[in-house]
């Protein structure tokens, strides 16, 4: 079984490196602006751009900076230039959420999710190229996050207007990606400082979002009307805590997250197809049955990291059949397997890349 699993992982990586990433260096890339298109069609044609998001650009930087080969590294450098040129306001230090089709500022919201991905992309660019601009950008954006988004109660606001006034309070998803970003930053600068921030974030998430009954991390602070649990995010937190066990040693979140993931797996994963639903009501029932590809990649990463290899083999077989095809992927499926979203957005290769890296590490360790 392990030999077959290794073959599957290698095939997934080839599909990413040989099919998907070249597509985003060619049809998916606007060479005039130096930015990735927001989405392409199932047959690889760029869809009309109404906007370009900094977060989408940053995710594309990550996948090309981490991919093998000089061509991928060079493309990551071009994208990083585009990120700095089009989204950063040097006068204020702000990062625009989006620009329009002509690369003029469109949405000037300061979005924590976006800032997190700028830090993340800058860290991996510096790790690969040692470009000093990447390190400066990473540290300056981190400083902005701590000065602007950090609240007096220890949490982080999810969004600010251009002048720094809070638009949205704490949310789980931005701080989860800030965690990912700070872990990447700690590999290249100030590891002790970032470790303390990571512990602070974990403690705040446990106090603000962790449901005592299910041990799941809710998307909004506990007690918020319309709250939900996303199984994919439970699995993603397992991977994040696994990346830095020494940082999180002794924290309550390290005990809760594995338990919450088991609950989410039982409530939100279809046993036959291994399909992960989008969201659960905190009480348990499925509230959004759509199956988004990113949640499937997080489930695969979770199964690999927890050592459930029989389940992983079944899940990857279903994933390849249901979500991948010769020229790309299917972004969202109905539970019955029908396509629910026909485009392929620029943000998704990041999910594939982070999943496959984890799978490769597991297979490599098993081979030792």
TrEMBL record:
Its EC number is 5.3.1.8. One of its GO terms (biological process) is carbohydrate metabolic process. It comes from the Bacteria. Keywords: Isomerase. InterPro entries: 6-hairpin_glycosidase_sf, 6hp_glycosidase-like_sf, AGE/CE. Gene3D superfamilies: 1.50.10.10. It is an enzyme of class 5 (isomerase). Signal peptide: none annotated. GO terms for molecular function: mannose-6-phosphate isomerase activity. Belongs to the N-acylglucosamine 2-epimerase family. PANTHER family: N-ACYLGLUCOSAMINE-2-EPIMERASE. This is Mannose-6-phosphate isomerase. It comes from Bordetella ansorpii. The gene is pmi.
């Amino acid at each position: 079984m392990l030999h077959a699993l290794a073959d599957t992982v290698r095939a997934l990586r080839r599909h990413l490196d040989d099919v998907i990433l070249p597509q985003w260096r060619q049809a998916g890339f606007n060479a005039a602006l130096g930015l990735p298109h927001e989405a392409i069609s199932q047959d690889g044609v760029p869809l009309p751009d109404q906007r370009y998001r900094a977060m989408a650009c940053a995710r594309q930087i990550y996948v090309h900076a981490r991919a093998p080969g000089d061509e991928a590294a060079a493309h990551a450098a071009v994208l990083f230039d585009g990120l700095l040129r089009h989204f950063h306001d040097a006068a204020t230090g702000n990062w625009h959420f989006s620009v329009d089709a002509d690369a003029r500022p469109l949405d000037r919201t300061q979005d924590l999710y976006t800032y997190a991905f700028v830090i993340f992309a800058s860290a991996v660019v510096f790790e690969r190229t040692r470009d000093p601009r990447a390190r400066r950008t990473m540290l300056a954006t981190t400083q902005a996050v701590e000065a602007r988004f950090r609240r007096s109660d220890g949490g982080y606001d999810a969004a600010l207007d251009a002048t720094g006034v809070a638009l949205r309070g704490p949310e789980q998803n931005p701080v989860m990606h800030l965690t990912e970003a700070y872990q990447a930053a700690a590999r290249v600068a100030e590891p002790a400082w970032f470790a303390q921030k990571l512990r602070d974030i974990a403690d705040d998430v446990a106090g603000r979002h962790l449901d005592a009954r299910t041990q799941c991390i809710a998307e909004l602070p506990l007690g918020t009307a319309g709250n939900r649990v996303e199984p994919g995010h439970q699995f993603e937190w397992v991977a994040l805590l696994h990346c830095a066990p020494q940082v999180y040693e002794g924290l309550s979140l390290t005990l809760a997250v594995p338990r919450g993931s088991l609950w989410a797996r039982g409530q939100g994963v279809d046993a036959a197809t291994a399909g992960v639903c989008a969201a659960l009501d905190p009480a348990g029932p499925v509230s959004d049955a759509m199956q988004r590809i990113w949640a499937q990649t997080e489930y695969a990463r979770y199964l690999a990291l927890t050592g459930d290899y029989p389940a992983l083999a079944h899940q990857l077989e279903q994933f390849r059949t249901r979500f991948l095809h010769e020229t790309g992927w299917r972004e969202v499926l109905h539970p019955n397997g029908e396509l629910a979203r026909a485009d392929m957005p620029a943000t998704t290769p990041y999910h594939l890349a982070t999943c496959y890296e984890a799978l490769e590490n597991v297979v490599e360790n098993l081979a030792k």
